[in-house]
């Protein structure tokens, strides 16, 4: 059984980092879309892993890290 994970970390400055594992292809973006919107909807940075560029068997993509939040201070 393949395990898919979403890890959410909030750093001391309040930035939210989302790391998705076990997912390949574009479905990762839709997998995290509601979470990203709930966290403010503003993507500050998106990093793709090498696995994200592999040919997906299931049509999903892995995103190494997504940082979302409000840049207002």
Automatic annotation (TrEMBL):
Region (Disordered): 50-73
InterPro entries tied to this protein: DUF2997 (IPR021375)
Pfam family of the protein (one): DUF2997
The protein, known as: DUF2997 domain-containing protein
Lineage: Bacteria, Bacillati, Chloroflexota, Anaerolineae, Anaerolineales
């Amino acid at each position: 059984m393949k395990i898919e994970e979403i890890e959410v970390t909030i750093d001391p400055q309040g930035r939210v980092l989302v790391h998705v594992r076990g997912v390949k292809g574009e479905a990762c973006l839709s997998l995290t879309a509601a979470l990203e919107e709930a966290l403010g909807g503003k993507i500050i940075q998106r990093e793709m892993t090498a696995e994200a560029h592999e040919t997906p068997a299931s049509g999903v993509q892995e995103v190494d890290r997504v940082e979302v939040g409000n840049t207002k201070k």
